[in-house]
Amino acid sequence: MQVHAPKGQYRVIGLDHINTLDSPSGPLSKDLESFDEARDLADRLTEEYLWTYVYDDAGKLLFEANSYREQARQVEMLSQEPPEGSKGDPRRTPP
Questions:
Q1: Which own/partner pairs from 62-68 qualify as long-range (CB within 8 Å, at least 24 positions apart)?
Q2: Prediction pTM value
């Protein structure tokens, strides 16, 4: 897969579509004008793809996101034991 974005742009690549039944054919590749737009798209795409990357026009990896970060945070929060004598459930409090 070509990771170099067109000159002055940023390429977002999404790999391993989560929902294989509705999966598009192959990985996603989209070119954007600004790094901020590309990074935001990569973050949003973690709901659909396991791995997303942002590359510049030289092919340098600038940013990566994955759906595992959020899942790991939720697993950690749910595996916490309530403090002794606590009547509440710490797993239900926001981080």
A1: 62/10, 62/35, 62/38, 63/35, 63/38, 63/39, 67/18
A2: 0.67
